């Protein structure tokens, strides 16, 4: 894996607005790319040394044809891909750093691009984060209840052995929460805050609530 410093990250990046798709630093997101504009985005990314694509949540704006964008997203590097016989791509993005959108820029490309700031997210490029207050037994007990209620299956041995960040970030990305809930998980300032948000979302779902109710 190529190591990046903040100075290596560009001021302008291509962004992929995909509802509910969450990418976090040091985590991997599989993507299925087939729309012509995003095929162009992916092929352009491959032509650059960094191979970066920014993942971001759309933010609907009333009366506007094209959705707005949330203020914060996460950039990832293309670390694996394969092409299908019908010219689609199966891509893996590895998360590098969150970013803040400064403004969207016009251009001749069919996909969207933004001027961004990396300020405030320097820790994303550092070592794996720890959650010193993490009660793993209580967390896994809640997770088991959540999975049983939704009739989900998983490899519990793998979960029990996973490092704090890998466990919390993987669940944040994989569990079926609403787009605004995913945004809250992305914007969490620390691993502990993300874990607390994740716990709140699971507890709320077990009480019969919805993600939309949680965000109000």
From TrEMBL:
Keywords tagged on the record: Hydrolase, Protease
One Pfam family cited in the UniProt record for this chain: LON_substr_bdg
Top-level taxon: Bacteria
Record-linked SUPFAM superfamilies: PUA domain-like
GO biological process, one term: proteolysis
Transmembrane segments: none
Lon N-terminal domain mapped to chain residues: 13-206
GO molecular function: peptidase activity
Classification via SMART domains: LON
Protein name as annotated: ATP-dependent protease
Organism name: Shimia litoralis
